[in-house]
Write a structure and sequence with these properties.
The structure holds two protein chains of two kinds. Chain A is an all-alpha fold. Chain A has 14 helices and two strands; from the N terminus they run ααααββαααααααααα. Chain B folds into two domains: about 270 residues, Orthogonal Bundle (ABC transporter involved in vitamin B12 uptake, BtuC), CATH 1.10.3470; about 100 residues, no CATH class. The chains are: A mainly alpha, B mainly alpha.
Amino acid sequence: MIFSTLNGVLYGMLLFLLASGLTLIFSMMGVLNFAHASFYMLGAYFGFQLSQWLDFWVALFVAPVCVGLVGAAVERWGLRTVHKWGHVPELLFTFGLAFVVEELVQMVWGKLPVDYRVPALLDFHAFELFGTTYPAFRMFMLLISVAIFLVLLMILTRSRIGLIIQAALTHPNMVAMLGHNVPKVFMMVFGFGSGLAGLAGVIAGPALVTQPSMAHVLGPILFVVVVFGGLGSLPGAFIASLLIGLIQTFAIAINYSLGDALSAIGMARPMQGVLSDLWQVTVAQVGPVVPYLMLVLILIFRPTGLMGTREN
Amino acid sequence: MSDATMTAARGNPALDLLRRYGIWVIAAAVMIVLPKIFTSGAALTTMCLMGIMIVFSLAYNMLLGQTGMLSFGHAVYYGLGGFLAVHAMNTIAAGKLAIPLPVVPLAGGAMGLVFGFIFGAVSTRRAGTVFAMISLGLGELIASLSLILRGFFGGEEGITANRTKMLTLWGVRFGPQIEVYYLIAAWCFACMIAMYAFTCTPLGRMCNAVRDNPERAEFVGYSTQMVRFITFCISGFFAGVAGGLAAINFELMNAVNISGAQSGVVLLMAYIGGIGHFVGPILGAVLVVLLQVFLSDLTGAWMLYFGLIFITMVMFAPGGMAGLIMLHLPLWRRGTLLQIVPSYAVMLVPALMGLAGLVTLIETAHHQLVKAATDGPAMKLFGIAYNSNSVLPWIVALALMGGGLYLGKLWGPRMADAYSNAAHGQESNKREAGK
């Protein structure tokens, strides 16, 4: 139970690292960035490559910067060109980019998972509870994500650039009127968001599996988080990240099916028909479906998301 | 096209009829004649796939191009239609149902319609980004469910059927691929006509209004939600028909057919072809299937080219292929189309240079990174043999790309001038420059 909670919070914090960048980018530029999870994957692969050549600790700092630079370049030479056609082509551009990044990663690092290991310094058990151990690296991941979260909070609420960003979240046109170089701010925010995603990739790579499909496994979940929390709302994204992280982790632990529920109240299980599987699947199996169900439900009943104020 | 038909309406009635329906007669003739020209088995399967994908991408464009609804989960209706068609075929083969095979796609269409009705009711209440997100969520939901509900979806390996064990109709058993081709072609043609006819109905026109200015459409007295909903259902129906045709063609349906990847492919097809014109998705479906079939034979990195083509299209030609062709329609009318051929020919030089450089770069990198470990560094490209681990090909590739880019930037404006001269004439061009 404690482990599930810890894992859930950890997964949630990782999601938030990604979702915060995505939310910032969406709020400022109006672009739902389909390639955001690709930057996360790039982070993991850059981290792997740099820790092969140099050291994990170097990778921890250098890889996110590299990913951020790639992101800024994508904004400068890609998105800015597409911007004049409108939002749908922008979205499609990032969609195509995600496609290309996955292919490139497959070409450079192969289709199989790479051997991205936990650094030796952190390769021990942090603590033991009821005979089960918890790896120190996961605690480290948690620590980093919480630290980043706090730094982000400080930047956004206390610094001048944070004020500009906050202003641009609600009144993008006014900020441009006040004389800020909006394209430059866009480029910086896009690069910064990509860098955050890259950082998430670097620290998640060793714990989860670093493979070419990691982007499109995480991508849709990320959208669920951002939309569920409310497009453009950072607090919403935070709550949604934790919620989805916890739900996904706990769902795996529950081995109970609808059929069991029926037998518990004394009814026979339906065994025939093409949909008989519906009664057999356990909550653990349905786990992956839950976020999407949540997404669809919240969009139907509260299209602005948990804490969002904007619809489009 | 519509302009041409309008002006012709006043002229000779026979000529008018020819102009209006000639294109359909030509399309039908092409569909009938094609398998006589390309008789090989590979060509036949490719053409079958094209027919299926034309129906699917036209159905998709009913949403994206016509009504302005960006969907990331349209494979749901294609896949569900396909799965129902497979189950229908198995039921027929078991003798429980007496339906001839050519009608089976209708079962797929019905499935698409039913689920279009259910999911459309919840998702079309919103437009824009919210709609796109709901469609993504529903798409992923059904894709994940397809792996859980093994009874209906058959899990990873899918569900198979045998199309030859059906009732025979006029002695046709649909064993050989050619018979299946004509079945698909007939359905494809019928669906094309139906979908084109839909664009001409008042509802089809309202779709465009809802896409362009939803607020005004509401003020005129139409419920934008109802327009979106009805279109969504119809689009789901045609997607289901395409799924049913796929089920007949492959005799197999699996989780891939209903996955997000399939939804992505149909989006690529419609967009590359051009979402602004009716022929766009047709062109896109034909091109993408050709790429899928032939490019994947030529190179291992074909998915990368595919993605790059899509990105290039989005960046520089958001109208797609149909949009590019339509750009030249005014030139054709003015009779100045030949004028710009020389400047296009000049631009061909940097374009080919850049392309050759890019292809060399990708192929060499692909060989060095993927194949060199097992096959050694020796490779062959454009008939030239070289080693992928030597430096020279990389330099040549980069030089070609750089040269192409430089010349393209240098000569690009001249081509743009030539185009606007041809399109608007010398004077109007000068007037614009004076503004």
